[in-house]
């Protein structure tokens, strides 16, 4: 059975409708991803800033009292830190929820690829992620 031939007699109105669809759908997708990015920044950004500030304060406190620790305690602490480091919860990079990371995360969520390295840590961000997908 021969393949159906393409319709050669398309009217200018039909061509215009196809062009509009071809232009509007990617635009709507970009708007959807951008809105998702801003919502993730809003939901996760403050929690991230608070966590970074808390870690900075803990570091300052530790450095202030580290001189008083005996050598065996420092060795044990070093082992605990080395064993407890996690790539999944890396807060050493400030701004993990900046615009481009949030934009990429939004695209990843709607394309069902998966989380990757960046994932929401806040309950509100997790719920939004479920609803957004």
Q: Can you tell me about this structure?
A:
- This protein has helices at 12-65, 71-84, 99-110, 123-132.
- It is mainly alpha-helical and 133 residues long.
- The protein is rod-shaped.
Topology:
Elements: H1 12-65, H2 71-84, H3 99-110, H4 123-132
Helix pairs in contact: 1-3, 1-4
Fraction of residues in helix: 55-70%
Shape: rod-shaped
Q: Give the SSE order as H and E letters.
A: HHHH
Rg, nearest Å: 25 Å
Task: Report how far the terminal alpha carbons are from each other.
Answer: 41 Å
Beta-strand portion reads under 5%
**What is the subunit organization of this protein?**
single chain
Q: What is the count of DSSP helices, taking H or I runs of 4+ residues?
A: 4
pLDDT averaged over residues: 76
Core attributes:
133 residues, mainly alpha
Quick recap:
With 133 residues, the chain is mainly alpha-helical. The protein has helices spanning 12-65, 71-84, 99-110, 123-132. The relative contact order is 0.14.
């Amino acid at each position: 059975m021969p393949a159906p031939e393409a319709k050669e007699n398309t009217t200018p109105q039909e061509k215009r409708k196809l062009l509009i669809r071809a232009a509007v759908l990617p635009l709507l997708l970009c708007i959807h991803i951008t809105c998702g990015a801003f919502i993730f920044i809003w939901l996760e950004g403050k929690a991230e800033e608070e966590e970074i500030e808390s870690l900075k304060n803990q570091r300052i406190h530790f450095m202030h009292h580290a001189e008083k620790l005996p050598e065996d305690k420092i060795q044990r602490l070093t082992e605990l830190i080395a064993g407890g480091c996690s790539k999944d919860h890396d807060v050493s990079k400030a701004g993990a929820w900046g615009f481009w990371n949030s934009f990429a995360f939004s695209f990843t969520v709607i394309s069902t690829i998966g989380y990757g390295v960046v994932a929401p840590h806040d309950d509100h961000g997790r719920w939004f992620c479920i609803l957004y997908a």
